[in-house]
Amino acid sequence: MASGSSSTAAAEARIKELLKELYHLIHEVQDERARGEHNLTNITKTHERMQAEQRISPYYKNKLRGLYTTAMQDAEAEAELLRRALDKIGEIKGIRENRRLGDSDRPKQILRRGVLMTMLQQNAVTLPLWVSKPGEKPPQLCGAVPADNNYVAKQGDKVAARVRGSDGEENWILAEVVSFSSSSNKYEVDDIDAEEDKERHTLSKRRIVPLPIWKANPETDPEALFPKDTLVLALYPQTTCFYRALIHEPPKRPQDDYWVLFEDTSYPEGYSPPLTVAQRYVIACKEDKSKK
Question: Of the candidates 89, 95, 103, which has an alpha carbon nearest to the alpha carbon of residue 10?
């Protein structure tokens, strides 16, 4: 118990330290933004003077060149501060998640359906947005970018898992990673919607698809999103199961969700009306090649 208490205290101390650093970073962002806005105001005023004089003199050319160079430097400085702030937030979330997973004295928490659905929605909303540097490509698990073949999901990560039910039917469910064995190449995962502790599955790696850990920005990295008419697996609203669907409309802004058409034979077209699904819960469709 003593070691558990000391590790909890250390985690709390680290979180407090990170929160202080985050607080100072946010103030630095505000200061940097104020400096940038002052420079942008100067750019606007310079353009207004040029229009009033109806000529572009060498003086104005040089002045604007300097102002725009400064504006780009200000924007990059602000972006770097925001990246550092996002890293702090990610570290805080990681510590809290590790503390939850390491608390073996407490039984697994069984959530009411409404609470679980709210939690899943919050997880999707708070998924960090990938902010690329100039010339940088989105990493694996950013939006539609798949994980590398050698990628191993960590304990506590959310994944789509293909499991066989008591009726023999196979479904893709939302699950949480418990462990991975490199010798057997198998995961142990828990059904996120389990009503009892026994809902644990041992599955081969090919039956697991890691969920995105970054949202892709449609305005800067549209190639990291599934295009229209792509066949995907998407989490059906208010459930914890993934079903085949077609992308009807990809996100247009960072805060937007996908619009998808779920396969549904009860409709004449074979698909449901468009429904929204967050980036967090849309993954590549893995075709059934084996039932083993």
Answer: 95
